[in-house]
Every structure is written in C-alpha cells, then in structure tokens.
Amino acid sequence: MTRKKTIGGIGIAILVLGFVSCSKKPEPPQTGKSEPVTTEPTTANPTLPVPASRAPEPQVARGVQTEMRRVKFHLTPRAAAHLEVLAGELWPTGKNTMVTFDDKTSFEVRVTNGTVSIRPEALADIMNSYVFAKPDAPLKDLQVSIDDGKLVIRGKLHTKGDVPFATQGTLSTTPQGLLRMKTEKISALKIPVKGLMGVFGIDLANIVNTAKIQGIGTDKNDLLMDLGTLLPPPHIKGKVVAVRVDKDAIVTIFGDGGKSLGPPKDKGSYMAFWDNSVKFGKMVMTPTDLTVLDLDPADELDWDQDHYQQQLEAGYSKITSNFGLRTYAKDYGKLKTEPKAGD
Fold first, then answer.
1. CB under 8 Å to 8, separation ≥6 — which residues?
2. Rounded CA gap, 272 and 280, in Å?
3. Does residue 181 lie within any of the structural domains?
4. Which among 227, 273, 312, 343 counts the fewest CB atoms within 10 Å?
C-alpha cells in the first residue's frame, strides 16, 4: 500500500463523525345518404352547454404543533436522542399530507427551539447500524468516546484491509446551522498522519468523497454534518445555533435552547401535539389535541416510534372535557417483550 492510499483511507475515517377539454362530438349514424353535419345549434334541437368538470382541490400538507420535555427519543433500538426541551412542528414529508405515527418516514420533526443531546455510545450505534451498515461500507466496528471536551473515534478501515485507526477533534457550528468537525489528530496503526497531509498540500476535500453519504460535506480539512439528514427517521431538522461536548454527551442548541417557552404545558415527562391532523392506528384526530405522558413522571419518557402501540397498550388513556386525548404510556425500556414464533 502506498503512502497516498493510506492517507486517503485515513481521511475516510473522519466520516464517522457524522453525526421531499374539449370533448369530441359523436359522429352521426350512417344512413346511406350523405348529409352535411350541422355545427351550429338549431331551434328545434338546441345544444346545451356542458359544464366544465372541476378537478378536486389538492390536499395541502400542514404541520402539527408540538412541545416535548424530558423525552428519550429512540433513533435505533439501542440509541436515542435526549430531548430536554423541544418546540416545533411535525411536518408531513414527500407526498404525505398528514402525520402518521405508524410510518415514521411520513413526517419529520422541525425544531425551532430546544436542547437535544446524544451520548457517544449512541452515536457509535447509529453509525454502525445505519450510516455505515452496508457490507461495502468503508468503516466498521466504530467506537466513540469523549476526552477533555473532544471526540475520540476508533474503528477499522474496512476497505483498506481493516486497518485500525483513531481520530480526535472539536465541534462547532456554521452560520447555516450545520455541525463543523475540526480534526486535530489522525492516526493509523498508531502512526500520526495529519502532518503528512500538510506537508504534501493535501486536505480532506481532496481525498474524501462524500457524494454518496447524505448529510456529509467537507470544507478543506473540516467535516460538515447536517444531522437532520444524517440521522435515521423520523429526522430531527432545524438550525443548530450552538454545540458543546459535555462529559458524557454531545449537546446541540436550537433557538435559545427552550428558555423562552415558558412553564411546561403539563407535569412530568410528556409530548404534546395540537392543531391540524394526525393519524395513529385506526384513528384520525382533527384538529389534533393529544398529549402523551409517562406513567412514571419521575424519569424521562422513553419513546420508541416502532413500538408505540405496545407502550400505549401497557398504559391507559383519558378523554378531556373538550374531547382531547391524554394517554399515559409505559417506558419502552420497561416493556416486557417476549419472542414471538418465528423471531
């Protein structure tokens, strides 16, 4: 393996941080006698105007307002984003005109204000099981940790013979609301290589092809990430105005972080939805007036969109005086799941 190829393989390693007439008149019957066809109406046989057919008005997608507090929102069975506070809309995607809870690709969460965090082990699970899950993915067996406010990534360069690598860097935001990863150290087989990139005038944009990975881009030696596209559905989208790396989590801030939202709409942990329409199971709620609360208000509402029916079955629901619905759900992690036949 030449030195240039090794450098190209190492550049790929940085990708791991990543973290929508006119109708024809009928001919007259043949009578054996040729007669002219009259096109003007006569008094004896007046022609009545045919009303023009009106096409049905297209349905317009409309967002459902939402506020969430202290919610552990699963992105994979083992990885979740922690929504300390979040305000925005659930918005139908593609040709969908309504938010449908049974199809998590039918909507996205458009955040206007809030604080969302993700733990490093959860980020590693998402990268291994979603972003780089294909057999020909360039990276495998990824591990993510935090060391003194910096992200440390370890794994294998699968397309380079499973060569071990490690990277370290800091996070910031761009004016467009993307995450910027500035790489400070890169090594393979415990040999530092970033210095070699500088000596030969090579930067990340020259050696990393991000065209096939949605949500990833490069700016010289920096990696740019759009978390709303990079992470699994339902996508959490919005302009990130700040990011910090805490002791055990990466924390992203939208708007003012939720400080201007005022007091909570309810007690404990909850997800509140209102306005426009939402479909779940056999029910369509118009206008939406739905609040999902934790059976145990002392902890986070552990929510998994793929298993929300079981969570609701394990709890109970109440109708309010104005026909709103308040449903108390059991945490996903507390469900007693038993294997079914064929599993």
1. 207, 208
2. 15
3. yes
4. 343
Contact criterion met (CB below 8 Å) for 85 and 257: yes
Domain presence at residue 276: yes
Burial of 260 (C-beta count, 10 Å sphere; 0-12/13-18/19+):
exposed
Whole-prediction pTM: 0.75
Whether 342 is in a domain gets the answer no
- Alpha helices, H only, 180-230: 194-199, 204-207, 227-230
Q: What is the pLDDT of residues 233-269, one digit of tens each?
A: 999 899 999 999 998 999 999 999 999 998 998 889 9
Amino acid at 141: D
Q: What is the arithmetic mean of pLDDT over 127-131?
A: 88
Measured distance CA(285)–CA(263) in Å, rounded:
26
286 and 221 housed in the same domain: no
Instruction: Tell me the residue type at 54.
Output: R
pLDDT band (50, 70, 90) for residue 187: confident
Structural domain includes residue 50: no
| Helix or strand run (H / E) with residue 24 | none
